[in-house]
Amino acid sequence: MWRQFLKHLKIYALLIKLNAMRQLEYRVNIVLGLLVEIGYLGVKLLYAYIIHDTGVHISGFAPQSLYLFIGTFILMTVFFVAMLQFNIMAFDRQVIEGEFDLILTKPVSAQFLATLKYVETWMVIPNVIVGLGLVGYGWYASGIAFDLLHVGLYLLYAVLGIITMYCVFTLPLLLAFKLHNISAFHSLIWALWDFNNLPHRIFPSPIQIIGTVFFPIFLITNFSPLAIMGQLSLVEMIWGVLAPLLLFLLTCRGWRRAISSYESGGG
């Protein structure tokens, strides 16, 4: 199992390199994309500054601590856009046109190749810089110790958040094997994603429970900041580890069952 993980990790590194080289063939698109991203980030920074400037505590969180949440949201958006967005939007087309048949012939996991083969590289660079800057400022301004424990907690729940993100947004792709056209799902992606922009505790309790337990989208960007702020209960910390692992097992099992009953869509 460990060998398989290392094998797919090396393949993913190669995919990143190949996608970066392919995207360099269209430098004008990269420049325009970077300008759009910078504009988007400018709006985010203005939004964060306005919240901070009000000095209002939102659901018990000091204004400066919100930079942690917004910065983490931007960093997770990097993984969402780079790893998943284009793969999700292209998936039903692969099934309908029979391209998925070719994926099944490759000597690697079909799930891995179908959901991760497209990687966005250059346009996420501004998000990485701004996201790290906001997290760093929020960390410092909140007076949180920058030690091994807190850094480890942040990174642990960030990795678990990426796993949760992968599962939450790829599990519904299994519908494409039956429905073929899941374009309606695409329109919900960004709407769902924006729920992670601020602490989930600003929402009413029923929404917090749904978004943490039944549809754990709040685990993606909320648990890293909450962990280093000491705002997670022991039950929440355990669930923050257990839920991503259960979701990943469910995702892998669902893919195996879907593929076992898959019929070519290219005929």
TrEMBL record:
<keyword id="KW-0472">Membrane</keyword>
<dbReference type="InterPro" id="IPR010390">
    <property type="entry name" value="ABC-2_transporter-like"/>
</dbReference>
<dbReference type="Pfam" id="PF06182">
    <property type="entry name" value="ABC2_membrane_6"/>
</dbReference>
<feature type="transmembrane region" description="Helical">
    <location>
        <begin position="30"/>
        <end position="52"/>
    </location>
</feature>
<keyword id="KW-1133">Transmembrane helix</keyword>
<keyword id="KW-0812">Transmembrane</keyword>
<feature type="transmembrane region" description="Helical">
    <location>
        <begin position="226"/>
        <end position="250"/>
    </location>
</feature>
<feature type="transmembrane region" description="Helical">
    <location>
        <begin position="122"/>
        <end position="142"/>
    </location>
</feature>
<feature type="transmembrane region" description="Helical">
    <location>
        <begin position="64"/>
        <end position="84"/>
    </location>
</feature>
<feature type="transmembrane region" description="Helical">
    <location>
        <begin position="198"/>
        <end position="220"/>
    </location>
</feature>
<feature type="transmembrane region" description="Helical">
    <location>
        <begin position="154"/>
        <end position="177"/>
    </location>
</feature>
<protein>
    <recommendedName>
        <fullName>ABC transporter permease</fullName>
    </recommendedName>
</protein>
